[in-house]
Design a protein that fits this description.
Elements lengths: L9 H9 L5 H35 L3 H29 L1 H18 L6 H29 L5 H26 L5 H6 L2 H11 L6 H6 L3 H19 L31 H31 L4 H12 L2 H15 L1 H21 L3 H28 L3 H33 L3 H20 L8 H4 L12
Length: 464
């Protein structure tokens, strides 16, 4: 057996992870890491149902729903931006463990609220830690998955988001009319804490460990991963010997300001535009859909039932998105999604009958899910390890800037223009974002992580 005489390189780490056959190990990582994302999304989606049910109890209007939701998403914005930077410095695993526990505490705490002000305050911190999750978990998973199947696996990861959205309407329908809104929030916390315990058994990302100057820990993590894959797949893994792959490791800490430097400027702004459009539209639908339906004369229970049908399209949207990004490429999947959202969102704005409402809203949500899968696959691929979580976090924060902006606008003008305001507001944003992605988005389909960031305008100083 050859002993190591040369230092472990980032190229070797990448080669050893990319050569692994998809196995039970990858499925375990997917389920354990992404399961809590289901409860994060369930929590944020249930918030919309809770606020809709509290309108008569606490006597507030749609504008107030927009403000309270915007406060929560401001927490999401801050959490995404800060915790991506934290994950690049203390590690992916520690960050996702701590954020999940703290999220659970604040989420359940909202059920004790006695006023809208207290609810909004606790909602800020709940979504702060949800935002932290959104910037760290996708980065962590992207760094462990082989490049040839990354898009498909991200699609399955996003299906957990979809399951959370779909489950939220069922959760609200079963719990709020019977046990009340407080229990709809209390009961999400235990599941999230169980997910945190399961996460403690996950390995740290070897890509991050090598960049952090811990080559022995990176080697140990790789050996553990290779052993699990070999055992579960029954395949013998040919050794990758020292010196076989280039790129010596560097432990230089990247500065977040590099995102706006010459190497990454066009890619960074392109991603920010895509996130702004995608999540501005997604959260507007997610938060206001129950309110829109009840404002049109449907009872709360009936609007919840309509939402069950509408949100049932998110899971196939996310899963199919994972296959579409591998077939069509990431940037063109985003384009397809944005054009379709604009078209079906406009039709939803004009819809009158229950069949039209559920069909066009369901198709809009389906293509929103498709776009989310593409964006979550695309973003971690365009930056090197030492700044990947930071870039993901700031891009995710821009998505919440879009959400805050659109929620405030929609909440303010909804009483005047009704749901027709949706297409008047979202179509221009989607069209501009689609043009930006078309002009400045590089192709990354099937490329290893150490190559995909070369789509930047200039070759970066450090490569993954």
């Amino acid at each position: 057996m050859q002993t190591r005489t040369q230092p472990l390189t980032i190229g070797e780490v990448s080669d050893r992870l990319d050569r692994l056959p998809t196995s039970r190990f990858h499925a375990k990582i997917l389920i354990v890491a992404a399961l809590s994302l289901l409860f994060d999304t369930l929590d944020t989606a249930v918030t919309g149902f809770v606020l809709a049910s509290l309108r008569d109890t606490w006597h507030f209007d749609a504008k107030t729903i927009g403000i309270v939701s915007a406060v929560g998403l401001s927490g999401y914005l801050v959490g995404s931006a800060i915790c991506g930077f934290v994950a690049d410095h203390i590690g992916r695993k520690k960050t996702i463990l701590f954020t999940l526990v703290l999220y659970s505490v604040f989420s359940a705490g909202r059920g004790l609220s006695g006023s809208l002000g207290v609810f909004a305050f606790l909602n800020f911190f709940t979504w702060f830690f949800v935002g932290a999750e959104s910037s760290t978990v996708p980065t962590y998973l992207a760094e462990l998955w082989p490049s040839r199947t990354r898009g498909k696996l991200v699609g399955w990861m996003m299906s957990f988001f979809g399951a959370g959205i779909a489950l939220s309407s069922v959760w609200a329908l079963l719990i709020i009319p019977t046990l009340g809104w407080r229990w709809a929030l209390f009961l999400t916390a235990p599941f999230a804490l169980i997910g945190g315990v399961m996460r403690s058994a996950l390995p740290e990302s070897p890509r991050w460990l090598i960049r952090a100057g811990r080559p022995s820990d990176a080697e140990a993590a790789l050996v553990r991963i290779e052993g699990e894959v070999s055992k579960s797949s029954g395949q013998f893994l040919t050794p990758v010997f020292p010196g076989q792959s280039g790129q010596e490791v560097s432990t230089r800490r990247a500065d977040p300001r590099e995102l706006l430097g010459a190497a990454y400027l066009s890619v960074t702004l392109m991603l920010w535009a895509a996130w702004f459009a995608e999540y501005g539209v997604l959260y507007t639908y997610q938060i206001f859909l129950p309110t829109i339906l009840s404002a049109e004369g449907h009872s709360i229970v009936k609007s919840f039932r309509y939402s069950v049908v509408i949100y049932s399209s998110v899971i196939p949207g996310y899963v199919l998105g994972g296959y579409v990004v591998e077939w069509l490429d990431r940037k063109y999947t985003i384009l397809l999604s944005f054009v379709s959202i604009a078209a079906f969102g406009t039709l939803f704005g004009y819809s009158q009958s229950p069949a039209q409402i559920m069909t066009f809203a369901g198709l809009t949500v389906f293509f929103l899910s498709l776009g989310s899968t593409a964006i979550y696959t695309y973003t971690p691929e365009l930056h090197p390890t030492e700044i990947r979580a930071t870039a993901m976090g700031i891009a995710s924060a821009w998505g919440r800037v879009g959400a805050v902006t659109m929620l405030l606008v929609f909440g303010h003008f909804f009483a005047i223009l009704g749901k027709s305001l949706l297409f008047l507001m979202i179509d221009p944003v989607l069209i501009v974002a689609a043009i930006v992605v078309l002009c400045f988005g590089p192709s990354t389909r099937g490329k290893p992580l150490q190559e995909t960031q070369l789509g930047a305008t200039r070759e970066p100083l450090m490569r993954d």
